[in-house]
Amino acid sequence: MRHASWRTQKRDWHGKHDAKRNRSRKKSLSIPVFVLSFCLLGIGGWFFFFSHFFIIDIVDVSVEGDIDPAAVREVFFDEMEGRRLLIFPRSNVFFFDSGAARRALGNSFAVTDLKIRRQFPNHLSVTMTGKRFRALWFTQGILYELAPSGQVVKNVDRGIVQLPPEFRAVASSTASKPKEKKPQEHIAVIPLIADEKNQPAAIGQTVIPEEDLSFVTALPSALSDIGIRLSSLSLSQGAPDLTVTTAEGWRLRLSFHTPLDEQIHYLDTLLREAVKKKRKKLELVDVRFENKLFYTFKDGK
């Protein structure tokens, strides 16, 4: 009996010792396993969110209409700049904002059908139907498409165009308004022209002479060449000049009677040699007449 009892005690001791050793072994292994799992998770996260493997570098565009596919592609690549949530690159196929791209296209084209598909790992496929606006006329809260002749062609759904703040301020309180999205900086790719007198317009009516409209349609590109982004324009029907509102918020006075390239040259010279680093404080610049150039600042100085 004593011999059997001694064997039982020895077996129990060995069992407890083995269990303790196994617990110690598991504990010693848990730390390396945790570190390894954490590293693998970090590497996987970096690969999915920051690796160039998922950076969009192919945008296939198929367009039905008179829109240049290269112009559409440029809109998409512009939307890929910067980061979302201050961390993730917008060019990552997982974080590309297709909603922002739709709104940007609506600022430039009359889009009737648009499909955006992500094709992993770095590919966007875009199919759309639409046409390029020549110019838009805004009065009494209504947006109209203009023909190259300056005639009003038809009403345009305001829901497909992101109106700049100065247009929303002019809108009539009686006009039907689409649901407004959160205000964003507006950069016009096409001319958006507001009637300063807010007069009614009719289909077929010529609201701006053809030669003046040609002047206006050349403005976005001409201003872009000297680093200025156009937000909107305003003029009165039959007036000899117009007012441009820039994306920076200051206004620019131009004349239809002076060649555009000359006025752009005056403006560029004025900004570089006189205004210099005070550009953000600008309120108004007038370059209609070479011998009467002037500018004012918001503080009145």
Strand residue content: 25-35%
> What does the average pLDDT come to?
79
CATH superfamily of the largest domain: Cell division protein FtsQ/DivIB
SSE topology string: HEHEEHEEEEEHEHHEEEHEE
Describe it.
- This protein starts with a helix and ends with a strand.
- A hairpin with a 4-residue loop joins strand 11 (241-246) and strand 12 (251-255).
- It is globular and about 80 Å long.
- The protein has 7 helices and 14 strands.
- With 301 residues, the chain is an alpha/beta fold.
- It has a 9-stranded mixed β-sheet with strand order 8-7-6-9-10-11-12-13-14.
Topology overview:
Elements: H1 2-50, E1 58-64, H2 69-79, E2 83-84, E3 88-89, H3 98-108, E4 109-119, E5 123-132, E6 135-139, E7 142-146, E8 152-155, H4 165-170, E9 192-195, H5 210-217, H6 219-224, E10 230-235, E11 241-246, E12 251-255, H7 260-275, E13 282-286, E14 294-297
Parallel strand pairs: 1-5, 6-9, 9-10, 12-13
Antiparallel strand pairs: 2-3, 4-5, 6-7, 7-8, 10-11, 11-12, 13-14
Helix pairs in contact: 2-3
